[in-house]
Amino acid sequence: MVASKVVSRPPAFGREEGRPVARLTNCEKTVLRLMIEGQSPRQMADQLCVSRRTVEYHLGHIYAKLDVNNRMEAIQQALRQGLFQPDDMVASSKRAPVMTKVAPAEHRQE
């Protein structure tokens, strides 16, 4: 049969242990990791040196591939599918705090 010789394109979702697994691009994985770290689209854009619109484009694809509607669902689904581990979230929260300006000792009120 001719139909048996037709090579089809792989679907957006693969199968692993009976459940769908999203196939994300490297850019989408990077955006997802930054989302898990709690960054806003603006922060992601600044860090990746791209526009906010580009980040939102990737977020739209992530949501579609994971079949979710928001950030929390995306994070939960990424963890369920093994795209990231809970340890990845803990490690990102242990980063050094952002430096803030501190008034010199003579100007501080105690």
What is the strand content?
A: 5-15%
CATH structural class? Mainly Alpha
Shape descriptor reads globular
Helix content: 40-55%
* CATH H-level homologous superfamily name: Winged helix-like DNA-binding domain superfamily/Winged helix DNA-binding domain
Please mark out the parts with pLDDT under 50 across 5 or more consecutive residues, or reply none: 1-19, 93-104
- SSE class: mainly alpha
Kindly identify the CATH topology.
Arc Repressor Mutant, subunit A
Largest sheet composition: 2 strands, antiparallel
Sheet with most strands: strand arrangement: 1-2
Give the number of DSSP strands.
Answer: 2
| Alpha carbon gyration radius | 20 Å
Order of helices and strands: EEHHHHH
Q: What's the average pLDDT?
A: 74
**Cα separation of the termini:** 86 Å
Number of individual domains = 1
The CATH architecture designation is Orthogonal Bundle
Count of helical segments? 5
Question: What does this 3D model show about the protein?
Answer:
This protein has helices at residues 26-36, 41-48, 52-66, 71-80, 86-93, and strands spanning 13-16, 19-22. Strands 1-2 form a two-stranded antiparallel sheet. Helix content is 47%, strand content 7%. It has 5 helices and 2 strands; from the N terminus they run E-E-H-H-H-H-H. Helix 1 crosses helix 3 (52-66) and helix 2 crosses helix 3.
